[in-house]
UniProtKB/TrEMBL annotation:
NCBIfam families: SCO2521_fam (NF040565). This is SCO2521 family protein. The lineage of its organism: Bacteria, Bacillati, Actinomycetota, Actinomycetes, Kitasatosporales.
Length: 345
């Protein structure tokens, strides 16, 4: 199970703390509202959430930027499926990432120990353990895990609000011209991870399309998996689920079929591109090259992708959709066949 985040440099080691039994997070994913993809320099400027830490930028196997973590202090009840009222205090970690200068994600997450003190401690005690939220008393782990996946009620801890607030902030950045190349929707992926029994391999127990834009994931992982690695896995799942969802909607939103007869070659100012080609071209330019599962998932968690490849078959569905796009572009690149009808005698 995710271990508590390391103390800040120079902080005394935290001993006697109950082991972490639950981690939770939410990922928001959307198309960057900009006419052109951002290069590495502009990506670093967009993601500079803190002046005291650098943005991580890598170019292999694709262009990727990730912000430093920011912390949000929380003191509120935890969601619970059985109605138990458990107050929790601590900090939620949040970060943002940009893939190929085109897909923006924000992620908020935290871990929970099995129990905490019976009274609230000074804020300094929580700040030396970033990304850890402590319950006051014993944690009803299964009930809270179910409550977190359901989203909780008004006033309960909601990491989605933190991830969504960060996304809203970034979408207003002056670098963005608010002219996305295609229509798309934001998606949310909410996840929980519980402790696996000793010696048991990580497992993806459930992946659910809960609503039109909401997905839920339930994991079972060893205790020593860092929460940041879990967040990285779920960022990757959210990215590729968003790509699938967006490409499906692009194809569903156009009328596919053979090219309509007309003058050939086209002579219109825009080249006379058929409507299907005009609709599909942004997906080809901006989406098709982004499919790269597990590119930045830790080695211990990478095998969890196999469950999604088997059922529902992420990559299999993606390849089928890409082939449909290519078939339509090929079909509309072929001059339409015209039959001359002789006038009746």
């Amino acid at each position: 199970m995710p271990a508590a985040t390391r103390p800040a440099p120079g902080a005394a080691p935290d001993t006697g703390v109950p082991r972490t039994v639950l981690a939770c997070g939410e990922v928001r994913t959307c198309l960057l509202p900009a006419g052109q993809a951002l290069d590495s320099r502009a990506a670093a400027q967009l993601l500079r959430l803190r002046a005291d830490e650098r943005v991580l930028v890598s170019e292999r196997p694709n262009l990727y930027g990730r912000s430093p973590d920011t912390l949000t202090g929380v003191d509120c009840p935890l969601p619970s499926a059985n109605g138990a009222r458990v107050r929790a205090v601590g900090t939620v970690a949040a970060r943002a990432s940009l893939t190929e200068g085109r897909v923006l994600q924000t992620s908020a997450y935290f871990t929970l120990p099995a129990s905490g003190p019976d009274h609230r401690r000074p804020w300094g005690d929580y700040l030396v353990r970033p990304g850890v939220v402590e319950p006051l008393g014993k944690l009803p782990c299964d009930a809270v895990a179910a409550g977190l996946l359901d989203g909780g009620g008004h006033g309960d801890l909601d990491v989605g609000l933190i991830a969504g607030g960060l996304l809203t902030r970034l979408l207003r950045h002056p670098l963005l011209d608010q002219r996305p190349p295609l229509r798309s929707r934001q998606t949310r992926l909410r996840w929980v991870a519980l402790t696996a029994p000793p010696g048991e391999a990580p497992a993806l127990e459930r992946f659910t399309l809960a609503e039109d834009e909401l997905r839920t994931v339930r994991l079972r992982v060893p205790e020593d998996i860092p929460a940041a690695d879990l967040a990285g896995l779920c960022d990757d799942l959210a990215l590729h689920d968003w790509l699938l969802t967006t490409l499906v909607r692009v194809l569903d939103g156009i009328r596919l079929g053979p090219a309509a007869p007309g003058p050939w070659p086209p002579s219109a100012p825009d080249g006379g591109l058929p409507p299907v080609v005009r609709a599909l071209r942004p997906a080809v330019d901006h989406l098709l090259h982004l499919w790269m599962p597990r590119a930045r998932v830790s080695g211990e968690l990478a095998p969890l992708w196999e469950a999604l490849e088997e059922r529902p078959g992420f990559t299999r569905q993606w390849l089928a959709l890409v082939q449909r796009v290519r078939d339509q572009l090929t079909l509309h690149a072929i001059p339409p066949v015209r039959r001359e009808v002789e006038p009746a005698s």
